[in-house]
Write a structure and sequence with these properties.
Elements (H helix, E strand, L loop, with lengths): L7 H11 L13 H23 L3 H18 L19
Helix pairs in contact: 2-3
């Protein structure tokens, strides 16, 4: 797999791997511009999530993760259960 998960090419590769069959749950392939906008939003969302954790608001962070980050990761085909932005996540928030 492409090691630079931030690139559009890596997204296309992940998309083909994760959504290998057509179906109702498969989102359409994003344009490069759409990808970049959503990827930037995901990066910002991880920062907000980290702020919740830093303030000790683990439960609110978990809710935010589930309601915002999880959906973005699915759209970007990177919902792999790892912290792709190398945030210092602690406290069992996920």
């Amino acid at each position: 797999m492409n090691q630079d998960f931030t690139s559009y090419d890596a997204y296309l590769e992940r998309y083909r791997l994760f959504y290998d069959e057509e179906g109702d749950e498969r989102p359409p392939i994003m344009s490069q511009e759409e990808f970049q906008q959503r990827f930037d939003l995901l990066r910002d969302s991880y920062q907000v999530y980290q702020q919740y954790i830093d303030m000790g608001q683990v439960e609110q962070g978990s809710i935010y993760y589930q309601s915002v980050i999880n959906g973005l990761e699915n759209l970007l085909a990177i919902a792999d259960g790892t912290d792709n932005f190398s945030q210092d996540i602690y406290g069992g928030a996920i």
